[in-house]
Amino acid sequence: MRTIVLGDVHLGSPLCRAGQLTALLERADFDRLILNGDIFDDLNFRRLKDRHWKVVERIRALSSRREVIWIRGNHDGSASVLGHLLGVPVREEYSFLFRGEKVYVVHGDQFDDFHSRTRGLKNLRDIFYGFAIWFDVP
């Protein structure tokens, strides 16, 4: 089974390359799509531009004829809301066989020691991240 694994898409971020992702999903030949977390930058849907909504629409359309698995990421927020939006179930982890070997897929933020030790600094990190995006956008 041909599988694409995508993560850290960050729909809603000005740095998200939604047009390139839509093109990939339209031209690639695959049977299974694994969305490995942080598909959305946050749950502020007002930040989603038309190009971001096109990705959402494409994933919803794919889910009716291909296997789509979504692994929750630390930016994805409420799994039930987002799963309904994309039309796919949200999981914490997923495994599958590839050439007879088991492949384990997890977003991995729980293994990031910096983020787990500094949860109280999240708002400050988000502010600096926002400034970095603002200054870096071409």
Structural summary, described in words:
This protein has 138 residues and is α/β, with parallel strands linked by helices. The protein has one domain: Metallo-dependent phosphatases (Purple Acid Phosphatase, chain A, domain 2, 4-Layer Sandwich). The protein contains five helices and six strands. The protein has helices spanning 18-27, 50-63, 79-86, 113-117, 122-136, and strands at residues 3-6, 32-36, 67-71, 90-91, 93-98, 101-106. Helix 3 (79-86) links the parallel strand 3 and strand 4 (90-91). The model has no long low-confidence stretch (mean pLDDT 81).
Low-confidence stretches: none
Strand content: 15-25%
What is the chain-wise order of helices and strands?
EHEHEHEEEHH
Radius of gyration: 16 Å
What is the tally of helical segments? 5
Q: Judging from the principal axes of the Cα atoms, what is the shape?
A: globular
Q: How many strand segments? A: 6
What is the third-level CATH name, the topology? Purple Acid Phosphatase, chain A, domain 2
Helical coverage, percent range: 25-40%
Task: Output the structural class.
Answer: alpha/beta
CATH superfamily, by name, is Metallo-dependent phosphatases
Strand order of the largest sheet: 1-2-3-4
* N-C termini distance: 38 Å
The tally of structural domains comes to 1
Mean pLDDT, rounded to whole units? Answer: 81
**Second rung of CATH, namely the architecture:** 4-Layer Sandwich
CATH class equals: Alpha Beta
- Characterize the largest beta sheet: strand count, sense, and whether it forms a barrel: 4 strands, parallel
